[in-house]
Amino acid sequence: GDSVITVQLTEEDKVEDDVVFYLVFTGSTVQHCTSTRKINPGSLETISPGHDCCETVKVALCASREGHPVLVVAEETFQFVQDEAYDAAQFLATCAGNQQALNFTRFLDRSRPPAADVDFLDEKVALAFRHLKLPAEWNVLGADQSLSENIPRETLMHFAVRLGLLRLTWFLLQQPGGRGALSIHNNEGATPVSLALERGYQKLHQLLTEEGAREPDSWSTLSHTVHSGDYSVKHHRGLDVYLLTAEA
Fold this sequence. Notes:
Layout: E1 4-8, E2 20-26, E3 30-35, E4 37-40, E5 43-47, E6 56-64, E7 71-79, H1 84-94, H2 99-104, H3 107-111, H4 115-131, H5 156-162, H6 166-173, H7 192-198, H8 202-209, E8 223-228, E9 231-236, E10 241-247
Antiparallel strand pairs: 1-5, 2-3, 2-6, 3-10, 4-5, 6-7, 8-9, 9-10
Helix pairs in contact: 1-4, 4-6, 5-6, 5-7, 6-8, 7-8
């Protein structure tokens, strides 16, 4: 999800300015409808929706004009694939609280990937996390909430901070257990806050300690989502397009 989609119209589809085009994505359990913006008479632009599973969906390009029925202009298939970022997010979400798995992720730290790779990883994994269907009882600290904060252990927050993943850290802060993880020491006696300070991650340290800290720049800051029951509406301010998602 959240990639830019360009639609090229054929000559016969290039019509008057009062015609509005939509893309309708129909999956097995969820349907999305996106508005589009016209780049020029022959091209439209919109944002791909974040889907609930990896599958091939039907996409219909629909044209709407006041006082006229909605027309299906063209139909195509669109594939939502499971990539490395999705796998990583799913692995991390499943391993929240699993000490063996969280200690295993620390080998990534030894390779110290370049800043550009870290930024790419941060954006993709945080986006994948947003599109995961996390269980209602999911917690950053794992399933065992009986553990005392005084027991040293590795947390997902330690992982995100150690690699300098700003957007993933922000996402985890908004989840149950996110704030509580900030005061937990690992086996070396480090909290996520002290790790950020030790590594010189100034922006990350501000994010963890300042009350009014804002979300790091990413696609999500360019959009606003409102949920209502089985429906959600997202407005992408960047392209000024809207996305309606409904559970079938």
